[in-house]
């Protein structure tokens, strides 16, 4: 994004000054006060004005949200299309829930069974129950052995997927041999492997807990109910209640809703397809406010402050000005240039501004337009500064305020009596009085 710089309004100013300054040593004699009708010869120049053309930037949405699914599942219905306006909480996608509901019922049944076991233990056990408890321990230990093997296998797969994903990212950053799609696929495989590893660990932990529970039950059966045995069974019951909550969450997560108000600008899912965790299904943007992103040069960044009011014009609506506010000024320049990122927030409730279009930003409180003049045109008297404005051959002594530009030039603030394109004497005599007649050479 390029920032336009200050430009001279009168293109012929430098040529006029070469002519004006070349004879400044002998062109002006002492000014006369027009009492006898004499005219003081002077050379003149037209004042040029510097204008601030502002900055060009690109309009972007204030907020863009990628909507993803927390769980994998087959899509049952999709309720919105691209361009639809949605509110926070609106249902966008419904996944099939038959299997999830069955898992929930299974978890609830486990809670019922655990409650029954706790009640039986508290009431005492028979010899048949002791044998059954011993059998349960053996079965639980066998199941745990299987989960340990599954964990090792899942860990190996996770490490392989991690190495592959890291390699793809490094190759993508350093060469063009790997595409963004390759990296995305690598990331998806990494996420799948990580999830599988975590699930295997969870299963192993659950199996270990079952072993502990089975052993505790056996001890309880053999020794009779104790407080520790009751606590162990209660812990198992708590675990199963947690499983019910997880199953219930999965049923709820099958209904995917919008997390914000906005407009759907991209839809990437169809009924019958499989939704995967972390894969974007929709993109929703909030266009009630927009951000204009600018790049400001290091010579201009000092004049930019967060909270400053600005005027914004979009190229598609050149006759309308939108009020905006500078919301962000980066303290760090862009990596490959000496420009600094700046963001401007603009209200867009009418929907007139479109993301991707170019906008111009101008400071509301920019300094007054400045004129440029040679130092030889300044008369200093009584700690004040003046220039001689020449209007139809008549001298007008105008008090001015100047700012140093360089060794030969100064800036002059424009005022009601002095504007761009008006003529001033280049090397006036300090004896010229207001109203004197001058001969322009």
TrEMBL record:
Q: Which residues form a coiled coil?
A: 197-250
Which InterPro entries is this protein grouped with? Beta-barrel_RND_2, RND_pump_MFP, YknX-like_C
Entry keywords, A to Z: Coiled coil, Signal
Q: Where is the signal peptide?
A: 1-22
Q: Name one Pfam family in it.
A: Beta-barrel_RND_2
Annotated ranges, domain YknX-like C-terminal permuted SH3-like: 371-440
Q: What sections of the protein cross the membrane?
A: none
Residue ranges of the CusB-like beta-barrel domain? 292-366
NCBIfam families according to UniProt: RND_mfp
Q: Which family does it belong to?
A: Belongs to the membrane fusion protein (MFP) (TC 8.A.1) family.
Question: What is the designated name of this protein?
Answer: Efflux RND transporter periplasmic adaptor subunit
Q: In the record, what lineage is assigned to the organism producing the protein?
A: Bacteria, Bacillati, Bacillota, Bacilli, Bacillales
